[in-house]
Amino acid sequence: QVQLVESGGGLVQPGGSLRLSCAASGFSSEHDAIGWFRQAPGKEREGVSCISSTDNSTQYADSVKGRFTISRDYDKNTAYLQMNSLKPEDTAVYYCATDPYGTCWPDQFMNIRRYDTWGQGTQVTVSS
Residue 119 pLDDT > 90, yes or no? Predict the structure, then answer.
């Protein structure tokens, strides 16, 4: 069964950190770009970050630059999103997804239609 499974979400105080994981099973994601998205209640799903498979280049939304870091471990078929200096506005369900085109273009990585496999999401709540 082809699936992505996110984990690592939870409740954290402002200024805290979390590391999200996105584990692929039933397929190899080594040729896919991996994107992270988030969706807050009442808002549209938005792109957060992306890591290419072609050259491991990365892209970030302006709202998370300097605070979030995306990475991947090809041996474990897993991608990660390290989130530091968390803010209440980071509260959302976080999703990972695969982009078979393999490259994260600055003007395209937030386009949901590029991604073909999605995880079920993990809740991140930033609150004191």
Answer: yes
